[in-house]
Amino acid sequence: MPDSLAQAREEVALANRILANEGVFDAFGHVSLRHPENPEHFLISRHRAPELVQPADVLVLDLDGKAVVPTPYRLYGEVTIHASIFQARPDVMAICHHHAPAVLPYAIAKVEMVPVYHLGASMGETVPFWDSRDDFGATALVVVDPAEGKSLAKALGPHSMVLMGRHGATVVGASLRELVFRTIYTTRNAELQTQAKLLGAVHPLSPEEIRKAAAYNLRPAPMERAWDLWAKHLAEREGRPAAPAAAVKTEPAVAARPPRAKPAKAPARKGAAKKKSASKRKGR
Questions:
Q1: Smaller CB count within 10 Å for the chain: N or C?
Q2: 224-230: long-range contacts, CB 8 A cutoff, minimum separation 24
Q3: Domains along the chain?
Q4: Which residues of 110-144 are buried (b: 16+ CB within 10 A; e: fewer)?
Q5: What pTM, to 2 d.p., does this model score?
Q6: Looking at the annotation, which residues are catalytic?
Q7: What is the 3-state secondary structure (H, E, C) of 194-210?
Protein backbone atom coordinates (compact mmCIF):
# COMPACT_ATOMS: atom_id res chain seq x y z
CA MET A 1 0.00 0.00 0.00
CA PRO A 2 1.18 3.59 -0.64
CA ASP A 3 2.49 5.35 2.46
CA SER A 4 0.36 8.48 2.17
CA LEU A 5 -2.83 9.79 0.67
CA ALA A 6 -0.89 11.98 -1.79
CA GLN A 7 1.13 8.99 -2.99
CA ALA A 8 -2.04 6.91 -3.26
CA ARG A 9 -3.62 9.56 -5.49
CA GLU A 10 -0.51 9.59 -7.69
CA GLU A 11 -0.60 5.81 -8.08
CA VAL A 12 -4.33 5.59 -8.81
CA ALA A 13 -3.90 8.20 -11.54
CA LEU A 14 -0.87 6.37 -12.91
CA ALA A 15 -2.68 3.01 -12.88
CA ASN A 16 -5.53 4.51 -14.92
CA ARG A 17 -3.15 5.87 -17.53
CA ILE A 18 -1.05 2.69 -17.66
CA LEU A 19 -4.13 0.55 -18.31
CA ALA A 20 -5.22 2.97 -21.05
CA ASN A 21 -1.76 2.98 -22.60
CA GLU A 22 -1.56 -0.83 -22.54
CA GLY A 23 -4.87 -1.13 -24.39
CA VAL A 24 -7.16 -2.35 -21.60
CA PHE A 25 -9.10 0.92 -21.22
CA ASP A 26 -10.47 3.23 -23.88
CA ALA A 27 -12.73 6.13 -22.89
CA PHE A 28 -14.33 3.90 -20.25
CA GLY A 29 -13.16 1.82 -17.29
CA HIS A 30 -12.02 2.71 -13.80
CA VAL A 31 -9.58 1.77 -11.04
CA SER A 32 -9.98 2.14 -7.29
CA LEU A 33 -7.70 1.71 -4.28
CA ARG A 34 -8.67 1.19 -0.66
CA HIS A 35 -7.67 4.20 1.43
CA PRO A 36 -4.15 3.70 2.89
CA GLU A 37 -5.28 4.82 6.36
CA ASN A 38 -9.04 4.17 6.53
CA PRO A 39 -10.30 0.80 5.20
CA GLU A 40 -13.87 2.18 5.16
CA HIS A 41 -12.93 4.60 2.38
CA PHE A 42 -11.52 4.19 -1.11
CA LEU A 43 -9.94 6.33 -3.83
CA ILE A 44 -11.29 6.60 -7.36
CA SER A 45 -11.15 9.22 -10.11
CA ARG A 46 -13.97 11.60 -10.83
CA HIS A 47 -15.98 10.90 -13.99
CA ARG A 48 -13.19 11.11 -16.54
CA ALA A 49 -11.60 9.04 -19.32
CA PRO A 50 -8.79 6.94 -17.76
CA GLU A 51 -6.10 8.26 -20.10
CA LEU A 52 -6.71 11.79 -18.74
CA VAL A 53 -6.77 11.03 -15.00
CA GLN A 54 -4.41 13.12 -12.85
CA PRO A 55 -3.87 12.97 -9.06
CA ALA A 56 -6.14 16.00 -8.53
CA ASP A 57 -9.00 14.03 -10.13
CA VAL A 58 -8.84 11.27 -7.51
CA LEU A 59 -11.56 11.55 -4.86
CA VAL A 60 -12.18 9.76 -1.56
CA LEU A 61 -15.47 7.84 -1.31
CA ASP A 62 -17.05 5.83 1.49
CA LEU A 63 -18.29 2.26 1.19
CA ASP A 64 -21.72 3.54 0.16
CA GLY A 65 -20.09 5.15 -2.88
CA LYS A 66 -20.55 8.70 -1.57
CA ALA A 67 -17.87 11.42 -1.63
CA VAL A 68 -16.39 11.90 1.85
CA VAL A 69 -15.83 15.59 1.11
CA PRO A 70 -18.51 17.36 -0.98
CA THR A 71 -17.31 17.79 -4.56
CA PRO A 72 -18.64 19.64 -7.60
CA TYR A 73 -17.40 16.82 -9.81
CA ARG A 74 -19.55 14.07 -11.21
CA LEU A 75 -18.80 10.52 -10.02
CA TYR A 76 -18.71 7.40 -12.14
CA GLY A 77 -22.14 5.82 -12.39
CA GLU A 78 -20.63 2.45 -11.48
CA VAL A 79 -18.95 3.36 -8.19
CA THR A 80 -21.22 0.75 -6.60
CA ILE A 81 -19.06 -1.96 -8.21
CA HIS A 82 -16.13 -0.78 -6.12
CA ALA A 83 -18.08 0.05 -2.96
CA SER A 84 -19.85 -3.33 -2.94
CA ILE A 85 -16.68 -5.37 -3.46
CA PHE A 86 -14.72 -3.42 -0.86
CA GLN A 87 -17.59 -4.07 1.57
CA ALA A 88 -17.73 -7.80 0.80
CA ARG A 89 -13.98 -8.46 0.55
CA PRO A 90 -11.79 -6.94 3.29
CA ASP A 91 -8.78 -8.62 1.65
CA VAL A 92 -9.23 -6.64 -1.57
CA MET A 93 -7.13 -3.48 -1.79
CA ALA A 94 -7.70 -2.50 -5.42
CA ILE A 95 -10.36 -3.01 -8.11
CA CYS A 96 -10.53 -2.52 -11.88
CA HIS A 97 -13.61 -2.62 -14.10
CA HIS A 98 -12.96 -2.75 -17.85
CA HIS A 99 -14.34 -3.67 -21.28
CA ALA A 100 -11.13 -4.88 -22.96
CA PRO A 101 -11.85 -6.09 -26.52
CA ALA A 102 -9.87 -9.30 -25.92
CA VAL A 103 -12.03 -10.22 -22.92
CA LEU A 104 -15.44 -9.08 -24.18
CA PRO A 105 -15.99 -12.09 -26.50
CA TYR A 106 -15.86 -14.35 -23.43
CA ALA A 107 -18.42 -12.17 -21.68
CA ILE A 108 -20.63 -12.24 -24.78
CA ALA A 109 -20.31 -15.93 -25.70
CA LYS A 110 -20.29 -17.08 -22.07
CA VAL A 111 -17.16 -19.11 -22.74
CA GLU A 112 -14.98 -20.01 -19.77
CA MET A 113 -11.71 -18.12 -19.46
CA VAL A 114 -8.83 -20.37 -18.39
CA PRO A 115 -5.12 -19.77 -17.82
CA VAL A 116 -3.24 -20.87 -20.94
CA TYR A 117 0.23 -19.62 -20.00
CA HIS A 118 2.17 -18.87 -16.84
CA LEU A 119 1.39 -15.14 -16.60
CA GLY A 120 -2.31 -15.82 -17.16
CA ALA A 121 -2.25 -17.96 -14.01
CA SER A 122 -2.78 -14.75 -12.04
CA MET A 123 -6.52 -15.10 -12.79
CA GLY A 124 -6.68 -18.21 -10.60
CA GLU A 125 -8.32 -21.55 -11.33
CA THR A 126 -11.84 -20.14 -11.77
CA VAL A 127 -13.29 -17.02 -13.37
CA PRO A 128 -17.00 -16.91 -12.44
CA PHE A 129 -19.69 -15.45 -14.70
CA TRP A 130 -22.28 -12.86 -13.63
CA ASP A 131 -25.32 -11.99 -15.72
CA SER A 132 -27.44 -9.00 -14.72
CA ARG A 133 -30.45 -10.61 -16.44
CA ASP A 134 -30.58 -13.36 -13.84
CA ASP A 135 -31.58 -11.04 -10.99
CA PHE A 136 -32.56 -7.79 -12.67
CA GLY A 137 -33.98 -8.61 -16.11
CA ALA A 138 -33.30 -6.16 -18.93
CA THR A 139 -31.08 -3.28 -17.82
CA ALA A 140 -28.85 -0.69 -19.48
CA LEU A 141 -25.91 -3.06 -18.71
CA VAL A 142 -24.39 -0.44 -16.42
CA VAL A 143 -24.06 -1.40 -12.74
CA VAL A 144 -25.57 1.66 -11.05
CA ASP A 145 -27.93 0.13 -8.48
CA PRO A 146 -26.34 -0.93 -5.15
CA ALA A 147 -28.35 -4.15 -5.36
CA GLU A 148 -26.61 -4.91 -8.65
CA GLY A 149 -23.23 -4.15 -7.10
CA LYS A 150 -23.91 -6.53 -4.23
CA SER A 151 -25.04 -9.22 -6.67
CA LEU A 152 -21.81 -8.81 -8.64
CA ALA A 153 -19.72 -8.97 -5.47
CA LYS A 154 -21.51 -12.18 -4.50
CA ALA A 155 -20.77 -13.72 -7.91
CA LEU A 156 -17.10 -12.74 -7.60
CA GLY A 157 -16.95 -14.58 -4.27
CA PRO A 158 -13.36 -15.38 -3.23
CA HIS A 159 -12.03 -15.21 -6.79
CA SER A 160 -9.77 -12.66 -8.47
CA MET A 161 -11.85 -11.87 -11.56
CA VAL A 162 -15.47 -12.06 -12.69
CA LEU A 163 -16.86 -11.91 -16.23
CA MET A 164 -19.96 -9.76 -16.70
CA GLY A 165 -22.41 -10.91 -19.36
CA ARG A 166 -22.35 -8.72 -22.53
CA HIS A 167 -20.53 -6.06 -20.52
CA GLY A 168 -16.90 -6.71 -19.52
CA ALA A 169 -14.98 -7.85 -16.48
CA THR A 170 -14.07 -6.81 -12.96
CA VAL A 171 -10.68 -7.69 -11.47
CA VAL A 172 -9.42 -7.38 -7.89
CA GLY A 173 -6.02 -7.40 -6.21
CA ALA A 174 -4.25 -7.33 -2.87
CA SER A 175 -2.37 -4.22 -4.03
CA LEU A 176 -2.51 -1.74 -6.88
CA ARG A 177 0.47 -3.32 -8.61
CA GLU A 178 -1.03 -6.79 -8.31
CA LEU A 179 -4.28 -5.47 -9.73
CA VAL A 180 -2.61 -3.85 -12.76
CA PHE A 181 -0.45 -6.95 -13.34
CA ARG A 182 -3.47 -9.26 -13.19
CA THR A 183 -5.63 -6.99 -15.37
CA ILE A 184 -3.05 -6.74 -18.15
CA TYR A 185 -2.01 -10.39 -18.15
CA THR A 186 -5.55 -11.78 -17.96
CA THR A 187 -6.34 -9.62 -20.99
CA ARG A 188 -3.33 -11.03 -22.84
CA ASN A 189 -4.31 -14.52 -21.72
CA ALA A 190 -7.71 -13.98 -23.37
CA GLU A 191 -5.98 -13.03 -26.63
CA LEU A 192 -3.83 -16.18 -26.49
CA GLN A 193 -6.76 -18.41 -25.57
CA THR A 194 -8.71 -17.14 -28.57
CA GLN A 195 -5.72 -17.62 -30.89
CA ALA A 196 -5.14 -21.15 -29.59
CA LYS A 197 -8.79 -21.99 -30.20
CA LEU A 198 -8.47 -20.77 -33.78
CA LEU A 199 -5.56 -23.15 -34.24
CA GLY A 200 -7.70 -26.04 -33.05
CA ALA A 201 -7.44 -26.66 -29.30
CA VAL A 202 -6.93 -25.02 -25.91
CA HIS A 203 -4.83 -26.93 -23.40
CA PRO A 204 -4.96 -24.93 -20.16
CA LEU A 205 -2.62 -25.11 -17.21
CA SER A 206 -3.33 -27.77 -14.63
CA PRO A 207 -4.60 -26.67 -11.19
CA GLU A 208 -1.16 -27.28 -9.68
CA GLU A 209 0.55 -25.34 -12.48
CA ILE A 210 -1.88 -22.46 -11.91
CA ARG A 211 -1.12 -22.34 -8.19
CA LYS A 212 2.65 -22.53 -8.68
CA ALA A 213 2.80 -20.03 -11.55
CA ALA A 214 0.55 -17.54 -9.74
CA ALA A 215 2.64 -17.78 -6.57
CA TYR A 216 5.83 -17.23 -8.57
CA ASN A 217 4.61 -14.30 -10.68
CA LEU A 218 2.72 -12.45 -7.96
CA ARG A 219 5.88 -11.90 -5.91
CA PRO A 220 6.98 -8.27 -5.50
CA ALA A 221 9.93 -8.52 -7.91
CA PRO A 222 8.04 -9.66 -11.06
CA MET A 223 5.20 -7.22 -10.40
CA GLU A 224 7.59 -4.30 -9.85
CA ARG A 225 9.53 -5.24 -12.98
CA ALA A 226 6.35 -5.12 -15.07
CA TRP A 227 5.09 -1.90 -13.43
CA ASP A 228 8.41 -0.15 -14.13
CA LEU A 229 8.21 -1.11 -17.80
CA TRP A 230 4.60 0.00 -18.21
CA ALA A 231 5.36 3.26 -16.37
CA LYS A 232 8.29 3.82 -18.78
CA HIS A 233 6.03 3.18 -21.80
CA LEU A 234 3.59 5.74 -20.43
CA ALA A 235 6.27 8.33 -19.66
CA GLU A 236 7.63 8.04 -23.21
CA ARG A 237 4.15 8.54 -24.64
CA GLU A 238 3.54 11.54 -22.39
CA GLY A 239 6.94 13.03 -23.23
CA ARG A 240 8.31 13.13 -19.71
CA PRO A 241 11.20 11.37 -17.95
CA ALA A 242 10.32 8.02 -16.42
CA ALA A 243 10.51 7.78 -12.65
CA PRO A 244 13.50 5.76 -11.40
CA ALA A 245 12.73 2.07 -10.94
CA ALA A 246 11.86 1.10 -7.40
CA ALA A 247 14.39 -1.03 -5.56
CA VAL A 248 13.07 -4.50 -4.77
CA LYS A 249 14.56 -6.30 -1.83
CA THR A 250 16.25 -9.53 -2.75
CA GLU A 251 16.17 -12.67 -0.71
CA PRO A 252 19.25 -12.98 1.51
CA ALA A 253 21.95 -14.98 -0.20
CA VAL A 254 23.04 -18.22 1.36
CA ALA A 255 26.57 -17.79 2.69
CA ALA A 256 29.15 -19.98 0.96
CA ARG A 257 30.67 -22.66 3.11
CA PRO A 258 34.40 -22.15 3.80
CA PRO A 259 36.62 -24.77 2.19
CA ARG A 260 37.43 -27.69 4.44
CA ALA A 261 40.91 -27.59 5.91
CA LYS A 262 43.07 -30.57 5.10
CA PRO A 263 43.49 -32.79 8.14
CA ALA A 264 46.95 -32.50 9.72
CA LYS A 265 49.17 -35.55 9.51
CA ALA A 266 49.31 -37.46 12.75
CA PRO A 267 52.79 -37.40 14.35
CA ALA A 268 54.72 -40.66 13.95
CA ARG A 269 54.77 -42.90 17.00
CA LYS A 270 58.09 -43.08 18.85
CA GLY A 271 58.30 -46.86 18.64
CA ALA A 272 57.74 -46.85 14.92
CA ALA A 273 60.42 -44.17 14.47
CA LYS A 274 63.02 -46.26 16.41
CA LYS A 275 62.30 -49.38 14.33
CA LYS A 276 62.65 -47.38 11.12
CA SER A 277 65.99 -45.93 12.29
CA ALA A 278 67.32 -49.37 13.29
CA SER A 279 66.42 -50.91 9.93
CA LYS A 280 68.29 -48.12 8.14
CA ARG A 281 71.45 -48.86 10.18
CA LYS A 282 71.27 -52.56 9.33
CA GLY A 283 71.06 -51.77 5.68
CA ARG A 284 74.27 -49.76 5.86
A1: C
A2: 224/177, 224/248, 226/180, 226/181, 226/184, 227/18, 227/177, 227/180, 227/181, 230/18, 230/21, 230/22, 230/180, 230/184
A3: 5-238 (3.40.225.10)
A4: ebebbbbbbbbbbbbbbbebbbbeeeeeeeeeebe
A5: 0.86
A6: 78
A7: HHHHHHCCCCCCCHHHH
